[in-house]
Specification:
The protein is of the alpha+beta class. The protein has 3 domains: 72 residues, Glutaredoxin (3-Layer(aba) Sandwich), CATH 3.40.30.10; 195 residues, no CATH class; 45 residues, no CATH class. Helices cover 61% and strands 8% of the residues. Strands 2-1-3-4 form a 4-stranded mixed β-sheet, covered by helices on one side. The protein has a two-stranded antiparallel sheet with strand order 5-6. Helix 5 packs across helix 6 and helix 9 crosses helix 11.
Length: 332
């Protein structure tokens, strides 16, 4: 196994399956290792932070954080590419990758722990994964502990009684937009997966595995469901499309979700971190959103702004970003 990468992950982690899907698409030899009691000692040899995924390279270097992992591996395995040759489509993919990781996680985490049926389903799956040899009594105790701990952490993504309607409306609208967009194409940017597919898919695949959002997807979005299945083992079925052909059905996602909700939220979060505030509120589409600020999101926005600043020719992408109300936020 010295020539293989090892991916320590969890099926219920959108970032873990995001990285696994990428490795599968690239055809990079790897071993998927469930992070649980059996693998914990090996995991701790390489992990700097107690998070998944952890990728261990053939040179025994530990890599963490899904986006930097993919960017690092992409520099070594550039074929088949995950970035469209059209520069506008390429940056929109980068923007949607960020949106999937940072805003899409709110859908997943909220739905997973908001209702009894989803709490019991997820806590049961997590407990069985962590303790595969547990007896019935041990498993029952573990399920209760997982449920209590995770339900108590929904504040981390900003989920609350106040924000729940906005999170669920955002999820349903996004699924509807994507279902229209995927009606005649295999992936978000054409006939092969792009950078954005892996991040968006990681969140939506995980929501699909939970009872409530899974039922919504299956009832309302057959094209999204087909894409969810396709991304488990993605492959190139043709070429990327140009932005001109993508714009009619993808622009609504930029306008309705990224520019109207995600961008003002991430800017407000970064400002709260810079000011050292313990809580922040921001008006999103006429509703007040309140949560504790998160340092990682501010760091992630900074990385996105650097990617935008590095673009050699911004004229075409600026027109798209300005229409979507994203330009000012990316300029900082």
């Amino acid at each position: 196994m010295a020539d293989r990468y090892r991916i320590f992950g969890v099926e219920l982690s959108p970032y873990s399956v995001k990285v696994r899907s990428y490795f599968r698409y690239k055809g990079i030899p790897h071993q998927w290792i469930i992070r649980n009691a059996d693998s914990q000692a090996e995991y701790q040899k390489y992990a700097r932070l107690p998070i998944v995924p952890l990728v261990v390279t053939p040179q025994n270097e530990g890599l963490q954080d899904s986006t930097p992992i993919i960017e690092r591996i992409e520099s070594q395995y550039p074929q088949p590419p995950i970035h469209p040759s059209d520069p506008v489509a390429a940056f929109v993919s980068v923007l949607l990758e960020e949106f999937g990781d940072e805003w899409g996680n709110k859908w997943m985490f909220h739905y997973r722990w908001a209702r009894d049926v989803d709490q019991l389903s997820s806590a049961g799956r997590l407990a069985r994964m962590m303790m595969p040899a547990a007896d019935e009594k041990q498993l029952s105790t573990a399920i209760a502990q997982v449920r209590e701990r995770m339900v108590g952490r929904v504040w981390f993504v900003g989920s609350s009684a106040q924000t729940a309607p906005e999170i669920e409306d955002s999820f349903c609208e996004t699924v509807g937009i994507l279902d229209t967009h995927l009606a005649n194409r295999a992936y978000l940017f054409g006939a092969r997966p792009a950078f954005a597919d892996f991040a968006m898919w990681g969140q939506l695949y995980n929501t699909w595995t939970d009872p409530t959002p899974g039922a919504l997807i299956e009832a309302r979005a057959t094209n999204v469901l087909a894409w969810i299945h396709r991304m488990l083992w993605p492959r190139a079925e043709g070429e990327f499309e140009t932005w001109a052909s993508l714009e009619p059905t993808l622009m609504p996602l930029l306008e309705r979700q990224v520019g109207r909700l995600f961008m003002p939220w991430t800017i407000a979060n970064a400002a709260a971190i810079a000011d050292g505030r313990e809580e922040f509120s921001v008006e999103l589409a006429g509703s007040t959103w309140t949560q504790k600020p998160q340092k990682y999101h501010a760091k992630s926005l900074g990385a996105l702004r650097k990617k935008y600043a590095a673009l050699p020719d911004k004229q075409r992408i600026d027109a798209v970003l300005d229409r979507a109300c994203c330009l000012a936020g990316l300029r900082g």
